[in-house]
Every structure is written in C-alpha cells, then in structure tokens.
Design goal:
Blueprint (H helix, E strand, L loop, with lengths): L1 H18 L5 E17 L2 E4 L3 E13 L5 E18 L3 E19 L7 E22 L4 E6 L14 E11 L4 E10 L13 E15 L1
Antiparallel strand pairs: 1-2, 1-3, 1-10, 3-4, 4-5, 5-6, 6-7, 6-8, 8-9, 9-10
C-alpha cells in the first residue's frame, strides 16, 4: 500500500510540475520493446535471451521559458522480461508488466523548418502489474502459465517496485508526429531480500516509439 501511494504521489508531482508551463504539449505514444534481465545468479553471470513486447502511454513536453530545455514526464504501460530457457523441447520466459513513470530532462535543437531533434535522460520508476511466468513445451507449443509473485520475502519471485535510469533521443515533426528511441537500465536488484543470498538481477530495455503531440 505504501509503495502504491509513493508511486501515485510521484505521478501527480511530475505532471503537476509539467502543467505549470503554458506551452506544455500532451502526446500519445506507442511502440515496440526488446527487454532482458542480467546479473549474477548462484555465482554465475547471466544474460538471458531477449524478450520482445510492446508499450504505450502518455507524454507531456513542458518547455522552460528560455533556452532549449524542456521537462518531459511520461507514464507508460511497458512489457519487460526475459527468456530464461530456450532448448529443443522447452522454452521458459517471464512476461513482466509495469506501469513505468519516467521524468526526462530534454534538450531541443529547434530546427529551422519547424522540426525538432531532441535528446535527454532522467529517472525511471516502475510499479508492477499482473505478470506471468510461461513455459512452452515443444513441439506443439503447449503453454503452462503461473502468476509471478511480487514481494520481498522468500516466497516471492521478484521485488515489485523497479527503478533505474532512462536515455531518450527522437525527432518531432512540425505537424506534431514524433519518433523516439530509448534505453532503460534498471538499478534496483529484483531479487527479494528475503531470499538471503547474493543473487542480483536487473531489468534492461530498448524501445522504439511513434506518437503525436497535440497542439
């Protein structure tokens, strides 16, 4: 409950700050993602097979009064995870779902013809949504699914709240159509502390988005 309140407070704070700017623009974006999980498990460095997903959400671009910088918070539904096993007869993967809040500080080039190249970075905070662990048996592609347990005790699969940093670069056309690519790397160790071991596992993700800023 406390984590939900903190996440909600962060959302309200970010978008309230952005709303103070009279020239703020609201945008809708959607796109594809490639995610992975990496770290050290039972003393072995792991870098699992990538997992493809999608994302969609809302972005606000709030330019400062002077200069080329703007504050660009966004709230996205994001699919993350990794394929942890892929052999001849079986494939295992985690299909993790998050509500991701990002708060980017962006530099805008403001091109002569109305287009705008931009790039920036900022923190990312993710709240877990219902997620699955999936096993696919081959041949036939028969699936077995179970719910991922989020928490911090020994019975949990992963910690629920994820946080990290985000890097973004993109281009917005004069008409409002925008294209962007981002890289998100998790900082928080997702292994529950209740497991009392030295395992470490973190999310990472590359995303490509297209969207539209309303004038």
């Amino acid at each position: 409950m406390k984590k939900s309140i903190v996440f909600l407070f962060a959302i309200i704070t970010c978008f309230s700050v952005a709303a103070q700017t009279s020239k703020a623009k609201v945008g809708l974006v959607a796109g594809a993602t490639i995610s992975n999980m990496n770290g050290n498990v039972t003393g072995v460095d792991v870098d699992y097979k990538s997992y493809a997903g999608y994302t969609f959400g809302m972005v606000v671009d709030a330019p400062f009064k002077k200069g080329h910088f703007s504050f660009q918070p966004g709230l996205h539904y994001t699919q993350k995870g990794a394929t942890t096993l892929d052999v001849k007869n079986q494939e295992d993967y985690y299909a993790l779902r998050y509500a991701d809040l990002v708060a980017n500080l962006v530099y805008n080039t403001h091109g002569d013809k109305g287009g705008n190249f931009y790039f920036g970075a900022g923190p990312q905070l993710g709240a877990n949504l219902p997620s699955k662990k999936v096993t696919v048996f081959k041949p036939g592609d028969t699936k077995s699914e179970s719910n991922v347990i989020f928490g911090d005790d020994v019975a949990s699969d992963f910690r629920g709240i994820d946080f990290g940093a985000n890097i973004i670069a993109g281009y917005t056309m004069k008409c409002g159509v925008t294209f962007a690519a981002n890289y998100n790397f998790g900082v928080r160790n997702l292994i529950p502390s209740g497991k009392n071991n030295d395992d470490k596992l973190r999310n990472s993700q590359i995303g490509i988005r297209v969207g539209y800023f309303f004038k």
